[in-house]
Design brief:
ATAP, globular, Hypothetical Protein Aq_1857, Chain: A, 2 helices, 17% helix, iron ion binding, 121 residues, FeS_cluster_insertion_CS
Length: 121
């Protein structure tokens, strides 16, 4: 397992905005999960109109081969296969009446669908 802590510079596997971290940590705490160990799993799966889609879920701990990124009090777990597609991405959270939720800004995506939930590399 590789672990990265970001303090604003360098090549980080995945960047987490403060708003995304705050929202995810709040949700983890709402599930009574220990934020010192548990985290948000970010992964890629087959599906969506563009071929690949993003997935997210909470996990109690990382797997042995995960990359673990710690930023703004949030731990993010990414498996090696998913890292091939989302390395260098930024996890963002946008609030509001429409389109509220987590979004992945992925520089590796050649194209994405209109809703932004699936992509192609």
């Amino acid at each position: 397992m590789s672990t990265e802590s970001a303090s604003g510079g360098g090549d980080v596997a995945v960047t987490v905005t403060p708003a995304a971290a705050d929202e995810a940590v709040s949700l983890l705490e709402g599930e009574s999960m220990d934020t010192d160990v548990a985290g948000l799993r970010l992964f890629v799966q087959q599906g969506g109109c563009a071929g690949l889609s993003y997935g997210m879920r909470f996990d109690n701990e990382p797997e042995d081969d995960d990359t673990v990124v710690e930023q703004h009090g949030l731990r993010v777990f990414v498996d090696p296969a998913s890292m091939n597609y989302i390395g260098g991405s930024t996890l963002e959270f946008e609030g509001g009446l429409q389109g509220a939720g987590f979004h992945v800004n992925n520089p590796n995506a050649e194209s994405s669908c209109g809703c932004g939930e699936s992509f192609r590399t």
